[in-house]
Design brief:
The protein has 256 residues and is of the alpha/beta class. It has helices at 4-33, 54-61, 74-82, 151-165, 200-221; strands at residues 42-45, 87-95, 99-106, 109-113, 120-123, 128-130, 143-145, 172-177, 182-187, 192-197, 225-229, 235-240, 252-255. The chain is elongated.
Amino acid sequence: MSPLDVRLMNALSAVLLLAFAAMALGLVLHHLARQPAFILQKIQIDNELTHNNAVTLRANVAPKLAGNFFTVNLEQAKSAFESVPWVRQAVVRREFPNRLRVQLQEHQAVAMWGLDDDVRLINHLGEVFEVNQGDVEPESLPRLAGPRMQSALVLQAYRELGPLFGGLDTELTQLELTGRGGWRARLESGAVIDIGPGSVQDIVQRVRRFVATVSQTSSRFGRNIESADLRYPNGYALRLRGVTTVDGDRASKTTR
């Protein structure tokens, strides 16, 4: 067996040799990485898009990318693509020697979000997102509103209630979850329906009962519904256009 000092010397020599090799390899890689061949030349969008095009995307994102094929930060590139209007999710990967390949998923807008003039939309997953003014025609979409963290719940309620109001030969055009937990609907006919508080199941039962009975009541007067209040435990208050009660200020109440 070699003396201890010889073994230590051999070990130290091996460590120094490995360190030198690592430094040399690093220098070589650094030199290669700086070669023009590895400068990012192309961003390839792999899928077809509805609200964006490849030329616009490249123009918006390219200035935000730093580095070359080896040094570009893929997470930063992903964030840059996802900051573009209508882009919900981006998957970015390198393709040797000088290309990025990108797979994008766009938002699928199903409704406007909020009662103000800000251009916010809600997608099919119940997520709220923003787009540029003029990118959407508000009249073509229903309007939903409520606390932003409950946007998915509001969308679920809209999907449950929409077909029910079809029984009145009208469409649900607006649904709001108020700050106090109450639900308020507006129909294409202009009628405002105060549904009251409760879970989606609760308000669906309330509206189903209302639709099943109100057709008989409204046809009796030959008028359209102006507003309804469904917050009564055993009935609802109904106001019809052109029909007033004796004092002229109170709505007609129908008990069912």
